[in-house]
Structures are given as structure tokens and as C-alpha cells.
Task: inverse folding
């Protein structure tokens, strides 16, 4: 079942990218989705991840849940190594600076609520599946 879900996610990302963002922003479960474009910290190659997001003022908040896996997603290490990256929201490309936050951050609980609500409670479920604290990554537009 997990393999099927991964293929669906990859298909969604492919449609989002190939359509230039015309299709994909709210395709999967109706959740708002952005494309996070990073550079691999080891390979130096461009990487793209489709992620559900919440908005917090002008910032975008994504969750490094990796479906509740004991290991965080690879993109988290990439944004920690190179925080200046790009997102695509629909057809708009936005240069951003990424900042990983954890439960000790004073805004974490509030942002967690925003992200979890957008994802219909799935992030709270994912947190019960792993012992690691799930990072929230704040993507702040650069001017």
C-alpha cells in the first residue's frame, strides 16, 4: 500500500511540474501543495519535492513528516545545508529562505496547528508513529 501511495505522490508532482503549475496546486486530497526546489547537499543536483503547506502571514510552512518515518525526508537536510531555495505555488515561483523549527521554538505549536489543520490531522497521526520530533520548515520569501 505504501508503494502505491508513493507512486501517486510522484505522479502528482510530475503533473504539477509538467503543467507549469496549472494543475497540481490543489490536486491531491484538495490540500494546497507547493513544489520545493532544493540542491542536494551531497550531489549538488537539483531536487524537487511536492509538499502540503500552510500559510503563516507571508511565510509558507511545510512539515518534514516523511509519513511518520523514523527518518526525516532528504529535503530537510538539503534546506539545512542550503537554506536559500525556491518554491512554486501554482504558477508562481518564489525565492525563499528555509528555516527548520522544532518544538522548542516559541511559534512551533501555533504553526503545527496551522499545518495539521490543512492536512486534516494527518501530521498529528504521523507524530505518534515516530519518536523524532517532526520539524516544521518556515519558508520566508526573499525580497
Result:
Amino acid at each position: 500500500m505504501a508503494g502505491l501511495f508513493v507512486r501517486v505522490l510522484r505522479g502528482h508532482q510530475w503533473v504539477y511540474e509538467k503543467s507549469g503549475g496549472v494543475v497540481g496546486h490543489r490536486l491531491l486530497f484538495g490540500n494546497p501543495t507547493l513544489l520545493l526546489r532544493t540542491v542536494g547537499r551531497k550531489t549538488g543536483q537539483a531536487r524537487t519535492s511536492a509538499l502540503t503547506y500552510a500559510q503563516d502571514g507571508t511565510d509558507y510552512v511545510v512539515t518534514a513528516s516523511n509519513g511518520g518515518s523514523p527518518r526525516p525526508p532528504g529535503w530537510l537536510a538539503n534546506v539545512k545545508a542550503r537554506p536559500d531555495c525556491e518554491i512554486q505555488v501554482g504558477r508562481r515561483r518564489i525565492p525563499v529562505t528555509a528555516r527548520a523549527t522544532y518544538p522548542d521554538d516559541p511559534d512551533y505549536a501555533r504553526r503545527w496547528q496551522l499545518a495539521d489543520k490543512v492536512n486534516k490531522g494527518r501530521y498529528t497521526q504521523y507524530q505518534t508513529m515516530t519518536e523524532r520530533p517532526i520539524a516544521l520548515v518556515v519558508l520566508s520569501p526573499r525580497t
In short: The beta strands are 33-39, 46-56, 59-63, 84-89, 92-101, 136-141. The first strand starts at residue 33 and ends at 39. The two ends are 42 Å apart (CA to CA).
